[in-house]
Write a sequence for this structure.
């Protein structure tokens, strides 16, 4: 009888979004011995090879990362806590999504905040108990935040350029990501409440975790070590 052919090593697919998440994940991949061989800013390719025949990167929209990983279109992915919370809310809770979330990667850090026009009296609008019109891409986070404060809000879902909403009268306030604060400043908006700190998380498909455990382990360990090293450097 012929000997069985050696089984090919399982291909791991990592879902990333272009921009900050991609750029800040690269050093973590390097720590795991993985080099991405194409620059997404120069190539139109959506599947990027790496120096490892068994690892590839797929480029998807940030909000699609949890979906790819949940359904197994990718074995693992990196996405912001904001994206993850909105995805879980769509599914009625994290338990229904079933993504394994082993690590806060401490990258792509920013914050989710409430911002209003410089001339808008937010404290008295909130105190009066009037209904606040709030425009945001992050409807679940905004709904939970204002519900916990007991503030009545009308939520207006937008997909980008949230800063325009208070300037055009579409809304009184926005809930959006703030990093440097430059975008708010350039549009004469001020941050009035900080809702939560945001950073990128590693998410892993639960089936992949079982059937590709050996292939995943070194990557998860290297990512965890890189995170620890960053923390130590920040504390020093
Ligand atoms: C985010 C956010 C703000 C901006 C804040 O947008 O929505 O517009 O960054 O950054 P800053 O405080 O450093 O100015 P992003 O560029 O991620 O694009 P998006 O509008 O597609 O979310």
């Amino acid at each position: 009888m012929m000997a069985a052919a050696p089984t090919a090593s399982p291909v791991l697919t990592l879902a990333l979004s272009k921009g900050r998440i991609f750029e800040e994940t690269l050093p973590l991949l390097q720590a795991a011995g993985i080099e991405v061989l194409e620059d997404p800013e120069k190539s139109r390719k959506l599947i990027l090879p790496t120096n490892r025949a068994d690892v590839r990167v797929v480029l998807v929209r940030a909000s699609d990362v949890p979906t790819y990983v949940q359904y197994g279109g990718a074995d693992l992915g990196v996405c912001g806590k904001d994206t993850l919370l909105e995805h879980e809310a769509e599914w009625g809770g994290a338990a229904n999504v079933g993504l394994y979330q082993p690590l806060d990667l401490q990258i792509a850090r920013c914050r989710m905040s409430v911002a209003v026009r410089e001339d808008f009296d937010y404290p008295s609008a909130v105190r009066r108990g009037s209904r606040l019109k709030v425009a945001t891409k992050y409807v679940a986070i905004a709904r939970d935040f204002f519900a916990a404060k007991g503030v009545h809000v009308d939520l207006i879902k937008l997909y980008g350029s949230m800063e325009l909403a208070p300037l055009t009268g579409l809304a009184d306030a926005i809930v959006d990501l703030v990093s440097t604060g430059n975008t708010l400043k350039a549009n004469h908006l001020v941050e009035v409440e900080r809702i939560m700190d945001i950073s990128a998380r590693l998410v892993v498909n639960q089936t992949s975790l079982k059937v590709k455990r050996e292939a995943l382990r070194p990557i998860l360990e290297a990512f965890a070590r890189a995170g620890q090293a960053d923390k130590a450097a920040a504390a020093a």
Remarks:
- The chain has a mean pLDDT of 93.
- The longest helix spans residues 213-235.
